[in-house]
């Protein structure tokens, strides 16, 4: 067998002298692009053919940067579709799994619809929360924005009436073209030049606000995760939530709890329902609604072959139709006579990042 290996090596050297060595410098991104050609071990020679094929007569052209980028973007989408198809064939609940994957990367609020004929206002708030596993708030930040969309020029010259019930020191900032004195005196949003209309058929940010702090009272939902070692290389885990703002109604609440690889948790108690996603090594605790009627709840489970650190960081997602800053849009008025204007209001609150570390 050694003689065959030497013969094979000799043939390859002769081929290289004749220009037969394959070149990977012009690779279009497929196959081995490092230029490395593995040499077979002696034990592999028996399964290796001795017929050496001549190099191809064509050359592989490099793709342009634009097509290469497009290929990568499309490839990622195709990978996701292929993965979803595989899940369907295995009988998995694809809708909840894909939704959870999207949510964990950060909840993305839908854009304002572009087929609006009248006046539409969107009040959007997103928060970033970071809490310690032993208690305490490491970071809290709330960012809010009111967006105005006018679909018809006859509604262009208007003012928006607000009501601010906040007592926690929310920092407000109007758009540079908004009349600041009008806002301070009457809590109205209007242009500095009232003879001019607001832009049409576009989303215009008119007011934004910010709230920061480390007070636990700012956090809408406190999470207490308490894993304890059971003495047999397993952990008993108790998780509790507490709604600290009874005026809020949180919808589609999902708490994501990481698990050790290969862990099959045994759930003994659960308010709401849970899902074990073995592929992602996580347990999802889901509650359709958390409000004043169920301000607290708990989940208890045991996890074999685990340690307390395995269950952190926890992440959390939800949506709400209430303003955390207690800012409300109460009316829309014409500039000329203060008569009311028909309008629609959309309010959404969601976490950009919410974790217990």
Automatic annotation (TrEMBL):
It is found in: Cytoplasm; Cytoplasmic vesicle, COPI-coated vesicle membrane; Golgi apparatus membrane. Residues 1-78 are annotated as: Disordered. Pfam families: Adap_comp_sub. Residues 33-51, 58-69 have a biased composition (Polar residues). Residues 1-17 have a biased composition (Basic and acidic residues). It is a peripheral membrane protein. Residues 116-357 form the MHD domain. One of its GO terms (cellular component) is COPI vesicle coat. Keywords: Cytoplasm, Cytoplasmic vesicle, ER-Golgi transport, Golgi apparatus, Membrane, Protein transport, Transport. GO terms for biological process: endoplasmic reticulum to Golgi vesicle-mediated transport; Golgi localization; protein transport; retrograde vesicle-mediated transport, Golgi to endoplasmic reticulum. Oligomeric complex that consists of at least the alpha, beta, beta', gamma, delta, epsilon and zeta subunits. The coatomer is a cytosolic protein complex that binds to dilysine motifs and reversibly associates with Golgi non-clathrin-coated vesicles, which further mediate biosynthetic protein transport from the ER, via the Golgi up to the trans Golgi network. Coatomer complex is required for budding from Golgi membranes, and is essential for the retrograde Golgi-to-ER transport of dilysine-tagged proteins. This is Coatomer subunit delta.
